[in-house]
Task: inverse folding
């Protein structure tokens, strides 16, 4: 799969899920960052970045995830990463940045009750 896309979905408790799909690489990293900042501007209590649909992640995409994590800490917002593919997990391990994130296998049950309709980005 070439390209990149994301889906923004409101969750329970003022949380928002951003599901990424395709390739988060240099070509798409800053588009992702712009969309994510737009979501962050609405001040969600918790931001869930769902990486399960990513087929590829490079260092520029990883840098945008780290930047999102720094902004979340600064703004006192909870940020969760839903584990991605083996390739995505391997990059996290090789670069030793995985410990910077709170990582889960799936969206926590307490956030799953839908709070609205998803939008495509």
Result:
């Amino acid at each position: 799969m070439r390209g990149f896309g994301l889906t923004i979905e409101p969750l329970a408790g003022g949380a928002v899920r951003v599901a990424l799909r395709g390739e988060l690489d240099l070509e798409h990293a800053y588009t992702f960052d712009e969309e994510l900042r737009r979501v962050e501007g609405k001040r969600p209590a918790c931001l869930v970045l769902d990486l399960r649909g990513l087929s590829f992640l490079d260092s520029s995409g990883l840098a945008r995830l780290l930047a999102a994590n720094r902004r979340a800490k600064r703004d006192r917002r909870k940020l969760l990463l839903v584990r991605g593919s083996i390739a995505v997990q391997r990059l996290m391990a090789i670069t030793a940045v995985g410990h910077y994130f709170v990582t889960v296998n799936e969206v926590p049950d307490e956030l799953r009750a839908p709070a609205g309709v998803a939008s495509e980005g």
The chain has a mean pLDDT of 91.
